[in-house]
Amino acid sequence: MFFLKGVFPGKTGGECPAAETGSVTARSHNNLFPGLHTGTLGFLLGLLLLCSSNALPQKNYFYFGRDYGSDANFTPLQVLLNGSYDIMQLEDHKRDVYNFPYKSAWNTLWKNIGNPFHSIKIYGTRNFLNDEVLPFDFRKNHAQWWPNYQLHLIGGGMTYAALEEWYAYHHYPQPTLLAITTTFGYHLLNETIEIDQGTGITIDPISDIYIFDLGGILLFTSDKVKEFFSSTLNLRDWSLQPSFSAKDGHLHNNGQYFEVKWFTPWSDKLGVFYYFGVNGLTGVTYKLDDEYSLSGGGGLRAKKNVTLDASVGRQTVQTVGTGGLFIDRNNSLLGSLFVSGLSDYTVLVNIYPGIINLFPFSTGCWVAVSEKGQLAFGVNILRLPGVGYAAFR
């Protein structure tokens, strides 16, 4: 996933796209997944089966079937568009989802995660642990572990739990297994999209998938963990409203985002607010009444990729300042306003279902203005991807 790795340089979002260097040779080409160790695959499948055997929780923590706000937009399809194509928000990435080189990027991904120890050895085991896993190095180009913990472990784990609740709420059979499949499906597609044209070594998806994505699912099988993040920290999915431009079919206004609101024991009205995705905004939140809250904050967000070491696919991002205001109802986002140093989405406004009622059902809409005054906008109906128009990228 591509998230706050743009705020903590050393990595782009959830994953660093691989550098266009010499390709990795898989040890075996007779498998369905070239080079994939039998033990690694068995371990992965075993963990998935362990998760799917757990009993469903007796209560919902992250999805409540509300017909307003960001909750109304939360579906597996929206998770796919927001999470898988998250990196396309960066200005040096095309938003063309139809002509993306899926096959070559997929092959590169499998060469790395199918033979992870080979890629880690080239990158350096110590470097891998220091940059990707152990939360001790805070230097600018070595803090890739930070977004791994908060976005793959916490954000990804919460998304899995919310998907499980969504499937159960809508009476799908085997909701846990469906949630696991959906979660790993969008993570794998996300890693594929971030590789883009790369053909060489990239260790980022190895840590993301095998350590933090798996760890997030396992962590959020615990009701105590879900209770803490849901009730104490008010963790929720506040993703954008993806729309396809009628001009060229490009995907706009997509992005996976999360928010946290923590109220201290000394105040049940005023609390600390944190919003994160390809940006990181820190600020305050204030309860207007028992249902509505107003939040705001400032920070940084990712703008473009910057290559640090092409031989091992290590990248960071150029960051710009950003600020945002939010209003929500029962932790379901109703509206947001962003202002940032981006050249395309300089100003972005999202209005979620529950505010505008032009039809028998409520709609969501959004509008963006570039630094040159160009417009992009879209309308989302019935929780489906929206249709709009964009004069840029």
Structure description:
The chain has a 13-stranded mixed sheet. It is 33% helix and 26% strand. The protein is an alpha+beta fold. The chain contains ten helices and 13 strands.
Based on secondary structure, the structural category is alpha+beta
Number of helices: 10
- The chain-level mean pLDDT equals 85
The best one-word shape is globular
Distance between the termini: 22 Å
Low-confidence stretches: 1-36
SSE layout:
Elements: H1 38-52, H2 69-73, H3 76-84, H4 102-113, H5 116-123, H6 125-133, H7 145-169, H8 175-195, H9 204-219, H10 223-232, E1 236-237, E2 243-245, E3 251-252, E4 258-263, E5 270-276, E6 279-287, E7 292-309, E8 314-329, E9 332-340, E10 347-356, E11 363-369, E12 375-381, E13 386-390
Parallel strand pairs: 2-13
Antiparallel strand pairs: 1-4, 2-3, 4-5, 5-6, 6-7, 7-8, 8-9, 9-10, 10-11, 11-12, 12-13
Please outline what is shown here.
The chain has 393 residues and is α+β, with helices and mostly antiparallel strands.
What key attributes describe this structure?
single chain; 393 residues; alpha+beta; 13-stranded mixed sheet; 26% strand
